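User: My collaborator sent over this chain with a note saying "see what the structure looks like." That's all I know about it. Can you take a look?
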Amino acid sequence: MKCWTKFAALLLCVSAVLASASERGKGVQETQARGFWTDPSTGLMWAGKDNGKDVTWHKAMRYCRDLRLDGYSDWRLANMAELQGVFDLTANAPGQAGPRKEPRDFTFHVKGDLFLTGNQWSSNYRMDDRGRPIGYAYYFDFNSGKPDDDQGGYSYGKRALCVRGQRLSTIPTSSPSLGPKSSASPDKSGNRTSGFQSGEQKASSPQKNVRSVPEFRPVA
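Assistant: Without extra context I'll predict from the sequence alone. Here is the result:
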């Protein structure tokens, strides 16, 4: 009798796993069929996949500005706060990585089952002490959950992920699955300021250049 009980419990576990996998597969298919995903927590509308090949920062900005998807023409390159907002350690979205001619299947920790193929440029860039661009831009790694910067003219492994909607300037803190967070102080609303200068919309008072990428620590 005990053996039958254990066997029945095992069957239930297997069924639950298969059902979960089926639902995830359905979610991936729906996102790719529509070509976009809308984040219910922010209302931002995301392209269902990145541009799919190496791209410099300036070309990534242009790619999103020129994108026409689902009847909309106001797409833009996501900023760092928005990219971090869709990072989720518990998500395992199927994607690809490696050389374009010989890509391999890979999973990224991104919400919405977005199909990614590399690190994602943000619209944020670094400046010198006078508030002028120095040729470096920030990107986000959806595998490690960390931001970094690189020369804007460097394209290897860099992609463009487009978004539309009201621009976020702070990183939401309501989700427990955001992964690494900035060490910057929260604003009055309890959100953390992104601390990055955006190529889409310059701040009225330029920030001083940070010699290294801001430190990020895991959510407690």
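A starting point for your reply to your collaborator: Helices lie at 2-34, 57-66, 80-85.
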